[in-house]
User: Which sequence fits this backbone?
């Protein structure tokens, strides 16, 4: 699944935060999106998942069977196509346990209608297995309880998205708030899925070593525009990136 | 005896309304302050059809309830995606509009002169009021059962997720707006059913019955009992309406000169109880209950 944005802009009070002529995500396996603070990374992610309405421009999604324009879609419709984004800030459902939260995410929308009031079993074995596999793979303090620490909530946020098996998965700063060993567990799992051809990923990160290690392709965003794109080595060696971002 | 049956019937109607509010507010987080409006559409809809057009009682209740559901759906379309305060104000306003329409549309509703008489069904049967009370009880028990099913179902889990964090639920592919509309419309429809069933209880309908005090009574009962508990509505109505309106007002041996103070004393007690609950047990007498689902994974560590 490929995502293409053309002439995409977003302005708040005449101040342009994002102004991108053309960018393509989902072409290169595991992609990174880097850039200094205030470069517009999170705004761009919000635009791509329709959480933020663009000021102008189009976003097109190539879903294999043809192109789809994202602009008229609502947030939940974007998610149903298979484009899912994790949250930078901690988000969660306070009343749902870790397992319930994952079950909720794994349940397809057509199974959540009124008829579900009369089904004897709440979740199918298939969903229970999926949930168990994910919960067991990570060291939650209480696997049958609630996500307690900020780290657990952040992890749960990522797992909630993963269990939906997105086609294009956007990760907004997965390392923020997560211990390093957990980040590696997550990223290894993500890389495995990418290599198996089950999804494409875009990671927004400040943790450059992680980007260089995991990413196959990197976009460099600065002051709202894509300034450079390439393989990690090319980006590392690029003078513009070095000047604008790495402070060399 | 007849008075006790009337009071108990009315109490069951209150429990039903509080139960529906538990679904709307406790589960889905929609602050509906227009309970009396949807109940009133059912009440007056049934009355107008029965008295003016000679429609038999049960079909009249069905038609009036459908009307209540449709108006609930239109309200949902208009305001449900706004903030909580907006929903609160809009539903309160709707109830006021309904009450005003009942006063102004004299040809249909009889205006302030009232509309009547609406008789109990089952003509010619003895103790029809008792049978009708059991009928109301059956409907209310069905509502309690349905809402426990909702609590334990996938749809209920989705509602809780929407209440907790709607934007997050939408980002996981849940059509939060449509789900809320559906739940709101259906529960408003049932409020209409309870209104329709209240018509033969009151027999004679006057606009005063559409005062917002009904909404507040139901809200107080729900908050006291526990908005997040399936039986909170019932317990809340027992300790408010059941205790004061039925037990004390009817059966307590209060001297006549003091009895006149009872309604004020009741309001005073409601207030004290409400403040105490909010201070010491903010989740209500019963607190919250969790879905009862056979959890295959819970046993394992």
Assistant:
């Amino acid at each position: 699944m490929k995502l293409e944005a053309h002439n995409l802009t977003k302005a708040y009070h005449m101040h342009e935060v994002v102004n991108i002529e053309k960018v393509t995500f989902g072409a290169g396996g595991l992609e990174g999106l880097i850039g200094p603070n205030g470069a517009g990374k999170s705004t761009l992610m919000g635009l791509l998942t329709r959480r933020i309405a663009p000021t102008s421009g189009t976003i097109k999604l190539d879903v294999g069977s043809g192109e789809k324009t994202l602009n008229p879609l609502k947030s939940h419709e974007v998610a149903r196509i298979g484009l899912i984004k994790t949250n930078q800030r901690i988000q969660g459902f306070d009343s749902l346990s870790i397992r319930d939260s994952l079950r909720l995410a794994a349940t397809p929308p057509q199974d959540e209608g009124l008829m579900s009031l009369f089904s004897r079993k709440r979740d199918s074995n298939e969903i229970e297995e999926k949930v168990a596999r994910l919960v067991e793979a990570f060291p939650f303090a209480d696997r049958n309880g609630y996500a307690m620490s900020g780290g657990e909530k952040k992890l749960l946020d990522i797992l909630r998205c993963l269990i939906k098996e997105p086609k294009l998965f956007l990760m907004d700063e997965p390392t923020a708030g997560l211990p390093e060993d957990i980040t590696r567990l997550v990223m290894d799992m993500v890389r495995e899925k990418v290599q198996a051809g089950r999804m494409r990923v875009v990671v927004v990160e400040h943790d450059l070593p992680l980007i260089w290690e995991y990413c196959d392709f990197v976009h460099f965003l600065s002051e709202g525009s894509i300034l450079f794109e390439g393989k990690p080595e090319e980006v590392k060696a690029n003078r513009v990136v070095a000047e604008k971002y790495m402070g060399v | 005896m007849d008075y006790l049956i009337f009071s108990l019937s009315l109490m069951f109607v209150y429990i039903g309304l509080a139960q529906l509010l538990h679904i709307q507010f406790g589960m889905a987080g929609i602050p509906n302050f227009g309970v009396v409006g949807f109940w009133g559409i059912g009440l007056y809809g049934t009355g107008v059809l029965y008295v003016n057009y000679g429609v038999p009682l049960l079909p009249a209740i069905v038609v009036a309830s459908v009307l209540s559901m449709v108006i609930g759906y239109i309200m949902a379309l208009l305001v449900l995606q706004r903030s909580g305060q907006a929903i609160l104000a809009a539903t309160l306003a709707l109830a006021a509009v309904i009450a005003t329409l009942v006063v102004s549309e004299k040809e249909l509703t009889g205006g302030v002169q009232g509309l009547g008489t609406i008789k109990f069904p089952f003509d010619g049967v003895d103790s029809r009021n008792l049978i009708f009370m059991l009928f109301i009880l059956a409907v209310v028990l069905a509502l309690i059962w349905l809402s426990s099913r909702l609590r334990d179902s996938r749809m209920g889990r989705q509602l809780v997720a929407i209440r907790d964090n709607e934007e997050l639920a939408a980002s996981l592919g849940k059509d939060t707006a449509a789900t809320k509309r559906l739940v709101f419309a259906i529960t408003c429809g049932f409020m209409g059913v309870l209104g329709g069933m209240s018509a033969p209880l009151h027999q004679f309908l006057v606009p005063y019955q559409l005062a917002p005090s009904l909404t507040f009574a139901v809200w107080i009962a729900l908050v006291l009992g526990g908005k997040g508990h399936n039986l909170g509505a019932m317990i809340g109505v027992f300790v408010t309406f059941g205790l004061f309106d039925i037990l004390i007002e009817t059966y307590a041996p209060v001297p006549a000169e003091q009895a006149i103070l009872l309604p004020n004393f009741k309001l005073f007690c409601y207030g004290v109880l409400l403040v105490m609950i909010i201070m010491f047990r903010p989740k209500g007498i019963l607190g919250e209950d969790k879905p009862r689902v056979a959890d295959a994974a819970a046993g394992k560590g």
About this structure: The two ends of chain A are 36 Å apart (CA to CA).
